[in-house]
Design goal:
The protein is an alpha/beta fold. Helix content is 65%, strand content 10%. 32% of the residues are buried.
Length: 574
């Protein structure tokens, strides 16, 4: 990323904070000027002492003490508060913008990137930018202070001024040598952190299954190796930074020695005063402080550059384009679905999933889609939900192309019940009201009755206020699915998809799910992708998918007598 691109990125966020930022910079700049006066006043006090004007010397010190106190209580304090507020406000905006943008990414983004990488871009990268920006402001103010000091030195000794210039050239040379190494190391560390966050997130969410499988120690070892990789690279970066600091510290020591020797010689040859030597002693450490800030900023800037690049990739679609939707806001649909001449394959696979797929799904019926594994049953849902786009052909709902629907309308019209539905770590009531905060408890209970889950909920001590745990761990598979069905009903979707929704359930749970589905058919288009054929034998129409095409359609009885593929699938289950 070029510097002008970084400037544009930062300007976009700091522009809204311009007034507060300017106020903070002015106050801190005044504070820095007052700090510069310290050396001058100390030198002046020494001059007064040298000629016996002790009262004047004391008054000068008292005067500066008053100014210093005012600086600490007003200029520096308020200025730092302004800068901190600006940084925090900007980080808040970046955090939200990246989070919002991640929600717009296409489905393949979440297959190609880990959750840890997105989490780090939302949180850690924004924090890195904030810290680097604060260092930038401090360094900027310190440089202005040093410029004033340098002008003062030029007026008093061109020799010392020349030594300062030579020193700065040496500092620039060594910084240019070390900075690319630090940036490279930071990129490697960031990648390892992405991996670690993803692993930790996954392991914590699956802790019960991990314990049940007896693989906790194995995964602990994997995490240990990942963390070891992070700190191995962190140590490499630290060594580069320490080497950089050591070189600059040596340069600082040489610079100090040369300046002090020069000052001694200037006094010896009567070319300067003790007051200048006193002030230059203070100003020399001001220079050293500025160099420290520059070193800190140089390293943090490389880290910020990496973070800005990573965030910019998301915000400006350098990795993936956003999903695009149409303008049709129709939600009162019948539920007629048609796949016309669909060709489709996943980007990372060579073989096509569908070749000239044609399929009509009639409204207010229970439709099942069956076939061997890998024949594209779930891909039909992925296309219908627009997680992926067909390479050719068009999908219609009530004769309207799918891509013409607005995102709100599309999501309103279609709901999906998965084998393991996602539930939030909130109460049952909150999980249901998340689709509409205005829903009454009466309306919610009606939906739960239809989904065959109300009786169970009312048997719980806290009823609808029961916390279900992360991922719904306090519920069985069947209970989670019935709760998801109730949520779909409250969403008022006319098309409800069931993706292997009963494949992992016992007979009792399967029976309740089947009954819940039967309750829906009169008002909804129900599409079931099924592995267990026993769950769909009463479907109005069963479509058999093979090699990317619909090879047969009909009732269970008809297909069992006339289609070899369906008959073979049914026999395998029996």
């Amino acid at each position: 990323m070029k510097y002008k691109d970084m400037y544009r990125f930062l300007k976009k966020y700091y522009k809204a904070e311009k007034n507060l930022l300017i106020k903070g910079i002015i106050l801190i700049f005044i504070s820095s000027i007052l700090g510069v006066l310290y050396g001058y006043f100390m030198g002046l006090a020494i001059d007064k002492t040298a000629i016996g004007a002790f009262s004047s010397a004391i008054l000068i010190i008292v005067f500066y003490l008053i100014i210093g106190t005012l600086d600490d209580l007003v200029f520096n304090r308020i200025g730092q508060i302004c800068i901190q507020k600006v940084s925090n406000n900007v980080m808040e905006k970046i955090n939200y913008d990246v989070y919002h943008k991640v929600g717009l990414l296409p489905a393949r983004a979440f297959e190609e990137k880990t959750s840890g990488e997105f989490i780090n871009r939302i949180t850690s990268d924004a924090s890195t930018i904030r810290e680097a920006f604060q260092n930038l402001l401090r360094t900027f103010i310190a440089l202005w202070t040093s410029l004033i000091v340098f002008i003062y030195i030029c007026f008093n000794s061109w020799i010392v001024a020349l030594e300062v210039i030579i020193y700065l050239i040496g500092f620039f040379f060594f910084s240019k040598k070390f900075m690319p190494e630090i940036k490279k190391a930071q990129k490697e560390i960031t990648k390892e952190k992405d991996k670690a966050v993803a692993e930790v997130n996954e392991n914590i969410r699956g802790i019960r299954e991990i314990r049940a499988l007896g693989i906790r120690e194995k995964l602990n070892l994997s995490i240990k190796n990942t963390i070891r990789g992070i700190y191995y690279k962190t140590n490499k970066q630290m060594i580069v930074e320490r080497n950089y600091w050591a070189v600059v510290s040596t340069l600082n020591a040489i610079f100090e020695a040369v300046v002090f020797i020069t000052c001694i010689l200037l006094i010896y040859f009567s070319k300067t005063s003790f007051a200048f030597v006193m002030s230059i002693t203070y100003y020399l450490y001001k220079f050293m402080n500025t160099i420290d800030w520059m070193m800190n900023f140089s390293t943090s800037f490389q880290k910020m550059k990496v973070s800005v690049e990573r965030i910019d990739e998301i915000l400006n679609n350098r990795l993936y384009e956003d999903e695009h939707f149409g303008t049709v806001k129709k939600t009162n649909i019948d539920g007629l679905i048609e796949f016309k001449n669909i060709n489709f394959k996943y980007a990372n696979e060579e073989a096509a999933i569908f070749e000239n797929l044609n399929l009509i799904i009639e409204p207010k019926k229970k439709i099942a889609i069956v076939g061997k594994s890998g024949q594209g049953k779930t891909s039909i849902f992925n296309l219908l939900l627009r997680y992926f786009e067909p390479n050719e052909g068009v999908i219609l709902i009530d004769d309207t192309p799918l891509y013409d629907f607005s995102e709100e309308a599309l999501r309103k019209n279609i709901a999906i019940i998965r084998q393991d539905p996602f539930l939030f770590n909130k109460s049952i009531l909150d999980n249901l009201k998340i689709v509409n905060e205005k829903l009454s408890l009466k309306k919610i209970r009606e939906a739960c009755m239809t989904a065959e889950i109300d009786e169970y909920i009312m048997s719980l001590p806290n009823k609808y206020n029961t916390i279900i745990g992360e991922g719904g761990v306090n519920l069985s598979g069947g209970q989670k699915q019935r709760l998801a069905i109730a949520r779909a009903l409250l969403k008022n979707s006319k098309i409800i998809l069931f993706d292997e929704a009963t494949s992992a359930l016992d007979n009792a749970s399967q029976s309740k799910i089947k009954k819940a589905i039967d309750n829906l058919v009169k008002d909804h288009t129900i599409i079931i992708v099924a592995h267990r054929l026993s769950t769909i034998i009463d479907a109005d129409i069963i479509h058999v998918i093979d090699k990317g095409k619909v090879v047969a359609s009909g009732t269970h009885t008809k297909l069992l007598s006339k289609n070899k593929i369906y008959k073979a699938l049914y026999k395998e289950e029996m």
